[in-house]
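FYI - complex with NDP, inputs then prediction.
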Amino acid sequence: MFKALQITQPETGYRCDLTELDESSLPEGDVTVQVAWSTINYKDGLAITGRSPVVRKFPMVPGIDFAGTVTDSQHPRFKPGDRVVLNGWGVGETHPGGLAQKARVKGDWLVALPAGFSERDAMAIGTAGYTAMLCVQALQDHWAARGVAAGSGEVLVTGAGGGVGSVAIALLAALGHTVVASTGRPAEADYLRSLGAADVIDRATLSAPGKPLQKERWIGVVDSVGSHTLANACASSRYGGAVAACGLAQGMDLPASVAPFILRGVTLYGIDSVMAPMARREAAWAALDRLIDRPKLAAMTRAINLAEAIQAGHDILAGQVRGRLVVDVNA
Ligand code: NDP
């Protein structure tokens, strides 16, 4: 038996409970993992609360990511004792996930954990941080192709106090960029500066309907918010700038005009972490190992246990989680 969160949909409504499952309940897969740490990402909040239909099969163990040790493997790349990390692939949505002491998945989905990370570090980064890295890599490739140097202009990070935002600030600062953090929590300004933000702005300056073209400011943007915020970020990007869009914390809509794209050559990159090819994942995790400042990572992270993860799912959707939450599934 092992401990797990489990989502069910009885007639009385959608539920998420802490329970004990039998090993026979593990799904098909060629690698079994003893999970050490998981996390609460925004999508885990959607799954745990049922606010959006991200869970497609019931019962379901939530948890879109985990880090742990292989205990059994029929996959050529992995053997018992290997330390691994998993992000996405529908795990925690259509395939039982990481908010459990055991998981069984396809070996093709697993990334070998870089030696420089503990399992807890890997989940402090989690899918939010790995997605932040994918966003930063999209911007880096864009700047490299155009000869744009770090420090030559400001980079905007929206949803700055959240998981994607916090890691993006730390990564961009490590690369020498001048980062402007947009937040709805002015009380977190010192925290955001401690991660590397040079300036902190009120998200209200970006979240209302704005003009199609605004004063040119950003050489790049990491946006985890969507909606008017993303539209305004595009409208205030500098000529030839780039916007990496990965989230929808404000909304899934994009009430924008084409003006920034056709008059300023702004590029909008869509970032998906769930189905990203293995080479891109491995490159992102290797870059995270090189770039992420461990003390900053520790400062943005708080640990909870499996039972507390249920309330945390509600808290993250309410915008009440600062940085990253890691879940000790064995506590
Ligand atoms: P968090 O909840 O940790 O961060 C989101 C942040 O957005 C909040 O902390 C808050 O920051 C800001 N925010 C919340 N509500 C609003 C609002 N109504 N208007 C403007 N800003 C708001 O979530 P994550 O960092 O885990 O995820 C962020 C987004 O990225 C989510 O939408 C998630 O689904 C998406 N995502 C997408 C992935 C992909 O593969 N494309 C992978 C991972 C995440 P503040 O208080 O500082 O303003």
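The two ends are 15 Å apart (CA to CA). The chain has two domains: 2-113+300-328, 127-270.
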